[in-house]
Amino acid sequence: MLQLLLEEPSAEVALRIIIPRMIPHAEEHVNYELRVFSGKDDLLRKLPSRLRGYSSWARNFDVRILTLVDRDDDNCVSLKERINRIAVDAGLKLHQSGSAGFGGCFKARIACEEIEAWFLGDPAAIRTAYPKVAKSFEHRAGFRDVDAIRGGTWERLEKLLQDAGYFSNGLRKLELARTLAPLLSLENNSSASFNHFCNALKEMFPEDDST
């Protein structure tokens, strides 16, 4: 049983497209769920009680929990430590790369700064979906490290697309996720947080329907 805890609907939209591409047997499973909260504050507020519930399930089932939150203005390391403490206090064990066995296993991943960094990390996907976007924008100073963008990653992406004549009335995040997720390269993305999440997902995903 794999539970993915997400803070926003656009992450859910993207992952419902990405997971079957990344995990060939994903659609054969009925034991993974994406649970969406009403933002980061709501997820962090409800996380202790939800993880305690998963911990009780783990007495009888193979439970694996992967949570994804945006860093926003938080320190990435401190935020991850805070979430990990909540998991340990709930009675879950932290999954380490390469470790065997689950039974109440938790892993946190932080999207630095926001999930839109994953989209900016694949300029080819952006230009495929939105051909009028400036060529080689990724070489500009403000886009060279997509995980280090400050002041709002989605605002930066919105301006990039609006400058090319798209989303004149404002960026529609769900539409953007539905459009770009099928185009993202799973092997060639400059966002380190995207690559870390993909690796964590592969490690945590159940291998067969008996898990």
From TrEMBL:
Highest taxon of source: Bacteria
Name of this chain's protein: DUF4276 family protein
Organism ancestry: Bacteria, Bacillati, Actinomycetota, Actinomycetes, Kitasatosporales
